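FW: tagging you since you asked about this chain on Friday. Here's the raw sequence from the shared folder, copied in full. Didn't touch anything.
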Amino acid sequence: MSLTTAITRRSVLRTLSAVSAVGAAAVLPSMARAAEFSYKYGNNLPVTHPLNIRAQQAADRILKESNGRVEIKIFPNNQLGGDTDMLAQVRSGGIEFFTPSALVIATLVPVAAINAVGFAFSDYQQVWGAMDGKLGAHVRDAISKSRLYAFEKMWDNGFRQTTSSKAPINNAKDMDGLKIRVPVSPLSISMFKGLGAAPTSLQFSEVYSALQTKIVDAQENPLPIIQVAKLYEVQKFCSLTNHIWDGYWFVANGRAWDRLPADLKTIVARAINEAGLQQREDIKKLNETVVTDLQSKGLAINRPQSDTFRAKLREAGFYGEWKGRFGDEAWGLLEQSVGKLA
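HL: got it, structure written out here
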């Protein structure tokens, strides 16, 4: 082989190699490159919870639709600290996203607790009518004043139900003197006192033993928590009182949100809001299966009406007190969806 032939062949190989490299780079997905915006999202729920399943789907969709420019890494199950810690972190920018329940964010934005007014909502139609409508917009505006951006659609945490070892709760009179565990929440304590019960604030980790030893006779929580914590082992009755509805606000650090270009904001908001709607359906289906499961474990289920409870709270001055705390504007928006309370 002549020198000229060798040089020519080497030149051709070099050219082919260069073309191949360019071609490979051209077909590599852009999301393989480092994300332009890499964000952390923390929450307090297990990775198997519908909130985390739908959030991961939203994160995957955002990565794809943004061509790899926006990456959201999820840290479930209190990996980044408790609710109070994560609320502080999302305000400071230590993390970019967080899903506090309304009662958690109410420690910062008091009006955010308005969805947890006792016996305000009779069903999910009223809940979503209010929270997807003017009341939700009012709360979101208040949240925005705390260096946070709240997405339009709340995610579901569910209605809270009442269990007891003594008797079913069929009406407000059945609450008289009932020793019931409640979370450390002024709204919850105020409501149960108004109903004539004897509320005791305990950490959730103490609930099972407190029920077992009869320190308290009753407790209240969403159905999936009653199931997971095996409270049916120390309770006989579950009354679907629907006394409080609570949900999660999906919030972003305000500065991080403002840094996103308009096209990326659209992609992120659409994915998160649509995932929230799917998570609502997941919780609805989960609650239906949980009722059946709890009944199979020996828990007697009953469905009281809200009328007597509302009447008792009105008589006790509960609604008047909280109308004063939340303000006429917010309270008026609530009553537009649920009817006259105070």
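FW: The first strand starts at residue 37 and ends at 42.
HL: agreed, and Residues 1-31 have pLDDT under 50 and may be disordered.
FW: great, closing this out.
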